[in-house]
Amino acid sequence: MNEIRIDDKEVIVMNLVHYFVTEKNYNPVVVHGINDEIWLENMDSDYKIVRIVSRYIHNDEQLGFNRFRSNQITRKLRIKTLSFKMNVLSIYTDLGENVKTLDKDKEGNLSLFVKNLQDFRDNKMLLEVFPDIVEKTQHDEKGIELLFKITDDINQTNERKNKKMEKIFSSKKPIVTYALIVLCVIMFIVSGFGYSTEALLLFGANYGPLVKSGEIYRLITCMFLHGGIIHLGLNMYSLFVIGPRVEDFFGKWKFLLIYFISGISASLLSIGLNVNVISVGASGAIFGLFGALLYFGYSYRGYIGALVRSQIVPIVLYNLIMGFFIPGIDMWGHVGGLIGGIITANMLGTIENKKYNSMNILLFIIYFAFLIYLGIFR
């Protein structure tokens, strides 16, 4: 039986793919019309795209054309994934002697030449970006055993990623959403169907002078009051449509926090900029759910970037713009809810993200300190 031989260039490519997929959470990108290149993406990395180019590049003209094609594809990926900037790490494994030295360009893209495993240790620019690449590419296996190991590791990593995505995107019972809808309906009935301003104030409508006098609870109670059946119906329908998605993506407790904190954000901005206006309704909290969806869509733009552009963003913009033309709508409450939802979701993370970033927490604190000053102490 003939022995299967793997040349040095193939070993380099296998090690690089194994490292970036299993250790750095990169995912393959399907690129049409490009041969002998492997494209990997990770939206959370400093280098969102890693290109492993195994084709032979003979001279600078070939290299220039290769970079030109790469820039075209990267531009399309940047638009598709809603990325303002997309730095690319290009690793070439087969360059001719006529090719000039590779380095970082003015846009921050880095190009490197790796001929053998020793180059991982000797390439200072590569080690600056990925300092553990030498350690993580050391394998005892050789030849076909190395191929089997790398293939098995990548398959296991992809299986774990698929299970994680399945957990995030799977539908669950929206118990919290339904409970909020029921509570709003009960309060609508108890408050006399929302047609009396005096009754709404009695049951906790948001009103600047009363909040500033110490009735802080109004920042929350106003979320469960509505001024008429149409007001209630529109808000409950919106909550029924969007609530289950956000509850799926963030989990029940994070969803509840996003809802209440967004509603408080809406209430504070409302009384800060509309001092003598009486406001009620769940729309501020619902706009917070829109904000959480925007955050989620941006975080997982590699998976649902097209959905964010075609559906989520237009719906948010439509609802914000319509608020300027319909009398009686508390636009500042909507804006406050939207911002509060984005900032809160950014701090809490999704259902699978349990790491709290200190900068996100600090941003949250600064934002609400400003709102408290604006709405209560100014």
Annotation keywords:
elongated; 2 domains; 378 residues; 16 helices; alpha/beta; two-stranded antiparallel sheet; 7 strands; Rhomboid-like fold
Quick description:
This protein has 378 residues and is of the alpha/beta class.
Care to describe what's here?
The structure is a single chain. By secondary structure, the protein is of the alpha/beta class. The protein folds into two domains: 8-168; 172-377, Rhomboid-like (Rhomboid-like fold), CATH 1.20.1540.10. It is built from 16 helices and seven strands. It has helices at 8-22, 60-80, 118-122, 124-129, 133-136, 143-169, 175-190, 197-203, 208-212, 218-221, 229-250, 252-273, 283-299, 301-325, 331-348, 358-377; strands at 27-29, 37-41, 49-53, 88-92, 110-113, 206-207, 278-279. The strands form two sheets. A five-stranded mixed beta sheet has the order 1-2-3-4-5, covered by helices on one side. Strand 2 (37-41) and strand 3 (49-53) form a beta hairpin. Helix 7 (175-190) packs antiparallel against helix 11 (229-250), helix 11 (229-250) packs parallel to helix 13 (283-299) and helix 12 (252-273) packs across helix 13 (283-299). The longest helix has 27 residues, at 143-169. It is elongated and about 85 Å long. The chain starts with 7 loop residues before the first helix and ends with a helix. The mean pLDDT is 85.
